[in-house]
Amino acid sequence: MARILLNKDNLFYNLEAISQKATSKEKVAVVLKDNAYGHGIVEIAKLSCEFGIKKAVVRSVEDAQKIKDYFSYILILAPNVFHNYSHTFHIALNTLENIEKIPQNSNVHIKIDTGMHRNGISIDDIEVAILGLLKQKANITGVFTHHKGADELSTNFFFQKELFSKAKAKVKEICEKLFLPIPAFHSCNSSALFREKNFEELNEDFARAGIATYGYLEDDLQFNFPKLKPVMSLWASKMATRTLKKNQSVGYGGKFTASSDMIVSTYNVGYGDGFLRLNENHNYTTPKGFQVLGRVSMDNLSINSEEEEVCLFDDVRELAKIHNTITYEITCSLKENIKREII
Ligand SMILES: *Cc1c(COP(=O)(O)O)cnc(C)c1O
Questions:
Q1: Same domain, yes or no, for 207 and 245?
Q2: Residue 92 structural domain
Q3: Which of 21, 27, 33, 161 is catalytic?
Q4: Which end of the chain, N or C, is more open, meaning fewer C-beta atoms within 10 Å of its C-beta?
Q5: What are the tens digits of pLDDT across the range 273-287?
Q6: Are 234 and 269 in contact (CB under 8 A)?
Q7: How many domains does the chain have?
Q8: CATH number of domain containing 337
């Protein structure tokens, strides 16, 4: 099987850029959902901890368990089971209906819907949520929201920001009235963080950095986003080499035909490993200038190379374009059983 190399220097470079923008390492929560966007949850957790990041965001309780030794503060976005959690776990409340399932003493972050209309409660329900959680004897440790398009040029970003600042004011007012501690506030994902002119002025407790950690941001020049460094590269090993004679073709459908005699090798990665299927409609060139020939199979692909190991990508932006998707999907698709190695 193929292997994934994780470039520690690049990860640290990105975490440094994020920490500076957020004003300190304490104000960064690294987002590790979905196997750390395909990079390997435990590997990225260990490295982020080594760098000095104290907070993480995951999808499930199972994920939080896997990384609990590396962080002092873990936000669980979509808790699937409700039982008693570790005191370092904070669970998101995505709907009022879940309040009664929350066990005593749980730390809860209330998710506010500021316009994405996916999860979260409306501003009008904040007081109901707080009172309900108090009745449940839960600790209200955070209030947050999520942007639907901080990486796009539109007014959504400003609109949601405005609504969240209203929500924050309301939460503060209610907490003061009830003699409750003011919870942590957070609203920024990667692009929102880098779009903020001055994160300090936003007066929030941390930012949730996902894609920027891994080296990508939508690089629309108008936002002046910094250049980050991709962390992941995908490598495949040679299984077989042959000479493809002029007019012979390779792979399913025989969609690549040699125009003259050429050397072709098969490498051990395919769409079954999560390397999305390229076919005759795409030209994809590896970082070293080799071509992926014809159609990618489930477990292997053909390349005009003889090297023992080839790097299929060290930056997924080109593949994201080819597949008409976002960088997130290219990295997330890589299966968990591929070996991850830190270099
Ligand atoms: C995925 C996610 C993030 C991280 O977003 P990026 O764009 O990758 O930085 C932050 N917050 C929530 C709630 C998320 O689901």
A1: no
A2: 8-214
A3: 33
A4: C
A5: 999 999 999 999 999
A6: yes
A7: 2
A8: 2.40.37.10
Q: Is residue 30 part of a domain?
A: yes
pLDDT of 85 > 90? The answer is no
Does residue 152 carry a pLDDT above 90? no
Does 222 fall in a domain?
Answer: no
* Residue 1 in domain: no
Contact predicate 22/189, CB 8 Å: no
What is the pLDDT averaged over residues 11-34? 98
**Is the same domain home to 12 and 70?**
yes
Counting ligand 1 atoms within 8 A of each CB, the residue from 28, 119, 146 with the most, and so the one to mutate, is 146
| Dist. CA 132–CA 68, nearest whole Å | 28
- The pLDDT, as a whole number, for residue 82 is 78
Q: Are residues 202 and 241 in the same domain?
A: no
Query: Is residue 46 annotated as a catalytic residue, yes or no?
Result: no
Query: What is the distance in A from the centroid of ligand 1 to the CA of 132?
Result: 27
Residue 86 has pLDDT above 90, yes or no: no
Check which CATH number belongs to the domain holding 48 and give it.
3.20.20.10
- Helices 156-177/126-135 angle, 10° precision: 40
Q: Which atom of ligand 1 is nearest to the CA of 189?
A: 9
Compare 152 and 105 and report the one with higher pLDDT.
105
Given the residues 252, 288, 321, 339, the one annotated as active site: 252
